[in-house]
Request: fold
Amino acid sequence: MNARDRDDEGRARSARPRDGLGRPLPYGDAGVERQPEGVVRSPGETVREAQRLLDAGMPFHAHEVFEDAWKSGPEDGAPLWRGLAQLAVGLTHAARGNAVGGARLLRRGAAGIDGLDGDAYGIDVPGLVRWARELAGRVEAGGPAVDPVREAPRLAGGGLE
Reply:
């Protein structure tokens, strides 16, 4: 690994550009700007930013937003954000054509948030659980290719839209 493949603190971090699904592209290709890491957002800001990214067909990047909320927020909120991150990664894998990994992560994320209260943040938890399980079933059954824009879930059922 060379110097450009390390972050400012010396940690390994590929400098290769990435596409909207987080796949590495060759050096020199135009890619999608990465999400900054470690951003602390309010729950509402997290939901809005993740929804913007999901709507743009960038579930990998939405997963990074959820991961920041999971790791920087209160411990009692971690299961919701972790589950949402898993749903976003599941959609990412399904859109990349990885049916096994996509379905597995969609189901894991759905199980992680099933029964949680998302009302405080306007998140439609039951709707997301249904969406994830339905998409996982279609992916496992070998349904048509997953379009991340068309399949993007609606996170909020109410006030954050």
User: Anything to note?
Assistant: The chain has five helices and no strands.
